[in-house]
Amino acid sequence: MFANLRRDLNAIMERDPAASNRLAAVFLYPSFQVMLAYRLSHILWQMRLRFIARLIMQIARVLTGIEIHPAAKIGPGFFVDHGMGTVIGETAEIGRDVTLYHDVTLGGVMPAVDSDKQRAAKRHPTLGDYVIVGAGAQILGPITVHRCARVGGNSVVTKDVPEAATVVGVPARQMSETTIKAEADTSFMAYGVQSGIDLDPRERTIRALVDEVQSQRARLSDLEDRLTSAAASAAPKKAPRRTKPKPVS
After folding, report:
1. What is the overall mean pLDDT for the chain?
2. Architecture of the domain spanning 86-198
3. Is the peptide bond before 236 cis (omega within 30 degrees of 0)?
4. What is the DSSP string of 105-153?
5. What is the pLDDT of residue 100?
6. Using one digit for the tens of pLDDT, what is the confidence trace for 4-46?
7. Which one in 13, 51, 237, 245 has a CA-CA gap of 20 to 30 Å to 77?
8. By C-alpha distance, which of 160, 101, 162, 105 is closest to 135?
9. pLDDT, tens digit (0-9, with 9 covering 90-100), for 89-138
10. Going by DSSP bridges, is the β-strand pair 166-168/173-176 parallel, antiparallel, or unpaired?
11. Whose CA is closest to 137, among 177, 168, 92?
């Protein structure tokens, strides 16, 4: 427990440039405060002291604005930047060194439909190591966001995300494919996306179509100019009118 908390604290210092020192992170960062409550309540949950575990997390929710079910499994190095409105469901599983931003939901799909059958079922997502989820993203259902994947802000993810892929949009679509080498790219990427990554495939297609239309329009304009010039050259030239000389009186 204490080793995990130490790693959680280190994660804040590593990933947030606004964190001035560890003392400030302990007392001023809701991410560390909620993880302190979670690490304790998770142990109590495993000891079947579930009412106390839920009570601790409800108090932490009021104090931090972050709601984590004590049964969720969260690895070391977890950091929720800002945190307000973040929800992590009961059967969610989170790997090591994962970063979430505010208003992220790791939720289920239609939890109110036949809830009795869902009680013992896996209904929340699994996030692999080094995953980053941008603000406002919704990851729903028993899906897997694989290692080193990035989820852009306000995305809605309902399908598995491949390793090291970046997804954005509603529904989330893959923006880039990165082949993971032996040295996996575990570098931190603020907000889940950065400038310079590949464009959305649909945006690339639209841009290609616009470029093609502009190219065709330029060719048509050039062809019209040539036809006009050719027609002007082929037209017969009129002979100049002769004027009668005036009689000399």
Report:
1. 84
2. 3 Solenoid (2.160)
3. no
4. EEE-SSTTTTHHHHTTS--S-EE-TT-EE-TT-EEESS-EE-TT-EE-T
5. 95
6. 888 889 999 998 888 889 998 899 999 999 999 999 999 999 9
7. 51
8. 101
9. 999 999 999 999 999 999 987 665 666 676 778 899 999 999 999 999 99
10. antiparallel
11. 168
List residues bridging with 166 in a β-sheet. Answer: 150, 176
Q: How many CB atoms lie within 10 A of CB 191?
A: 16
Instruction: Give the amino acid at 166.
Output: T
Q: d(Cα 58, Cα 33) in Å, to the nearest integer?
A: 13
Specify the residue for token string 């204490």: 2
Give the type of residue at 76: P
Task: Answer yes or no: are the C-beta atoms of 183 and 200 closer than 8 Å.
Answer: no
Cβ distance 131 to 162 under 8 Å? no
Measured distance CA(164)–CA(44) in Å, rounded: 35
Q: Return the domain boundaries, the chain.
A: 1-76, 86-198
pTM (predicted TM-score): 0.72
Written as one string, the DSSP assignment of 213-224 is: HHHHHHHHHHHH
The rounded distance, in Å, linking the Cα atoms of 53 and 153 is: 31
Q: What angle do CA 69, 193, 11 make, to 5 degrees?
A: 50
Spatial CA neighbour of 43 closest among 6, 4, 96, 89:
4
**Contact (CB, 8 A) for 1 and 25:** no
